[in-house]
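Checklist before submission:
- one chain only
- standard amino acids only
- sequence pasted in full

Submission:
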Amino acid sequence: MPSIPDIPPAALAPLIRECIHSARSVAQADLYAMEWKGRPALLKTFAARPWLVRRLWSRAVAGRELRVLRRLQGMAGIPRLYATAGPEAFIMERLDAARMPRRHEPPPPPEFWTNARRLLDELHARGIGHGDLRRKNILMGPSGEAWFIDFATAWTSDAGRPLAGFFFRRCRRIDRVTYARIKATYAPESLDADERAWLAAEPWYLRWGRVLKRRVYRLRKGRFWRKKIRRTRRTLHRRLGPPR
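Returned file contents:
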């Protein structure tokens, strides 16, 4: 495996083009488009987070993702790691791929699901559980290629690490269920026997997670409150009459 260079963070400024994803919380990283040795690349960095967050959280998260990316270098469907920039930032390949289509858009082609399933099985065979295999972390190439990104929550099955095998098996189970659920939203007729069995054995914490997302997390969205305000106004108009 080729060595991954570590470059001074100060040397990154001339290479950065634009910020393409700003962190939405204090625990997230910023993502910048840049150029690395003539190739399009991405810089993932926690440098803008508060010092205490970086010391207690960001370095551990970046270190986890770096370990996984190093372990998966050369595997098809995984972005290449180009360089690190200290303990809180790294440069990786910018993929010629897009996020999965929305439900009202044309679905992925059949070969995409073949490629995604092969990638999922190989990932687990290498002892890596992704743990956060949502639609936004699965990309689709122009010819039906499948890519997995964002390994910040991944677990490895390394022997000798306390509870590593336990958390790897949990992540593997979550990966299988979430992959099957995503596939079922686009092509339910193409689910194979294994994928149907994964859905049938969905763990309780995933079911409860969806319930909380629908009933609790939606309260944070402006659309929910706008509808609430409109319903309240209509109720008042019926009882009191239109405003004068």
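Reviewer check: Residues 15 and 171 are 36 Å apart (CA to CA).
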